[in-house]
Amino acid sequence: MELKICLIGKGTVGTSFLELLKRKKEIIKERYNCECKLLAIFERDGALINEDGLILDELLNDSIDFRENKFWKKNLKAKDLISKLNLDVCIDATPTNPNTGEPALTHIIEALNNKIDVISSNKAPFFLEYKRIKELANDNKCFIRYEATVASCIPALSIKENLIGNKITQIKAILNGTSNYILSRMTSENIPFEIALKEAQELGYAEANPNLDVGGFDAAGKLVILANELLGWTKTIKDAKIEGITKITPNAIKLAKLDGYVVKHLAIAENDNLIVEPRMIKKGSPLNISGTLNIIELQTQYAGPVILIGKGAGGFEAGSAILNDLIYIIKERKKIGSN
Predict the structure, then answer these.
(1) Continuous segment of H or E residues that includes residue 177
(2) For residue 123, which of 57, 58, 175, 159 has the smallest C-alpha distance?
(3) Contact criterion met (CB below 8 Å) for 270 and 297
């Protein structure tokens, strides 16, 4: 079996995925009898294309600019070539545009329309156009996988396959490491929001423009995807009630502590509602995690709470989620081929 792949976006996540694919390529070949062939890498200003397969070692050599590779061509666009490359899987690792979902949304739709399986780490298409994408994948009998869109390497979406005999009824989560770090520092050091934010920026946990994180929009997008996938909803981010953490004061945190509570930025899906807002939780709650970790508490019908915790961001974390999705597709395609 040969699986022909393209990657759109060779940023931190895309490059980390390629590194992991290089490390695991022979294992995949031995275990699943599948040869993964990378035909193209698309960037904003052009593409590397070789229908005989690009060499991963050359692409990952830090001393060589991949734009100097003999297969580099300027001004080529993924949306124009996805249908022409005889691909099996299209992987989108482009940056998130929370307003339009582009260019990832166009890439995903173009791939599915051409019966190409899709893996994405870009969350925006899924919190904006979840129903459309899922229906298109179903109509074209394609796999669409996007584990990396929520909490990176934590199996937040694929856990559904391991709870198939159960029913998930509620989600409570902390889904943004930046906000959680800021609130943790405000709680432990009694410092104001502005100082904790500056510290997070200096450490690389927060962007220069942190509004998507501290305003709650990043967590809301992830919550939409979680709720749609695990609860069977078809919501968009427009359905979410969103409140950020910018108005939280040291005094509010101090008062909460006096009563045995801490303030956390929670993402909650229950009773057909999506809510992202600061809430007080008991100090001993499992949701009281510190630093940049993510945590997801799933309330189940028969087994009570199931809790997932881990790093919610990072190149190799997201790259490993993409690799997991790729191996899932390989296994499922082999099943189909053997029937």
Answers:
(1) helix 177-189
(2) 175
(3) no
Residue with tokens 């501290």: 214
> Which segments within 123-272 are labelled E, that is strand?
144-145, 168-174, 240-242, 261-270
d(CA 38, CA 50) in angstroms, rounded, equals 8
d(CA 339, CA 334): 9
Q: Catalytic residue positions?
A: 222
Instruction: List the helix and strand counts (H, then E) for the chain.
Output: 12, 13
- How far, in Å, CA of 129 to CA of 225, rounded? 10
Look up residue 255 and give its two tokens: 């008062």
Per-residue pLDDT of the chain in tens (339 residues, 90 and over written 9)? 999 999 999 999 999 999 999 999 999 999 999 999 999 999 999 999 999 999 999 889 877 788 888 999 999 999 999 999 999 999 999 999 999 999 999 999 999 999 999 999 999 999 999 999 999 999 999 999 999 999 998 999 999 999 999 999 999 999 999 999 999 999 999 999 999 999 999 998 988 899 999 999 999 999 999 999 999 999 999 999 999 999 999 999 999 999 999 999 999 999 999 999 999 999 999 999 999 999 999 999 999 999 999 988 889 999 999 999 999 999 999 988 766
Domains located in the chain, CATH noted: 2-152+316-338 (3.40.50.720), 159-311 (3.30.360.10)
Alpha-carbon distance of 95 to 82, in angstroms, equals 19
3-class DSSP assignment, residue 119: strand
3-class SS of residue 332: helix
Query: Phi and psi of 267, rounded to 5°?
Result: -115, 120
Task: Compute the distance between CA of residue 308 and CA of residue 292 in angstroms, rounded to an integer.
Answer: 14
Q: CA 261, CA 275: separation in Å to the nearest integer?
A: 20
**Confidence (pTM):** 0.95
Residues ≥6 apart with Cβ < 8 Å to 313:
152, 177, 292
Amino acid at 105: L
